[in-house]
Design brief:
135 residues, alpha+beta, 5-stranded antiparallel β-sheet
Amino acid sequence: MKTIVVPAKTEELDTVNAVIDAELEVCGCSPKVQMQIALAVEEIFVNIASYAYNPEIGEAEIEVGISGTPPTVTIRFLDHGKPFNPLAKEDADTTLPAEERGIGGLGILLVKKNMDQVSYSYEAGKNILTIQKKL
């Protein structure tokens, strides 16, 4: 797995995407799947940058690897911020009008809909959110 550590700041999103895109391009990932992954990565990374350490700035570690048949990309987001399981919240009810919905939840719903697998754990003081997508 390729690993990078960056400050958990939204300005670092381009760096994160560049590393992930480089890995996806090596295996000939389709533009559609690459876009789905990019949307999920943006949602997760921006949430880490916005909430994990607020008001301080910590680090985010991102691991990306491709393996298996068919090839599957696995991306892990690790941070030492406040413990938070985004999968514990009930999915946003998209059948309700926008003004009747609660705040939040649409981003993680987008991640869950676009990825094949999403999991969360809290280990050794780290939030670990893992996404997987068959290429």
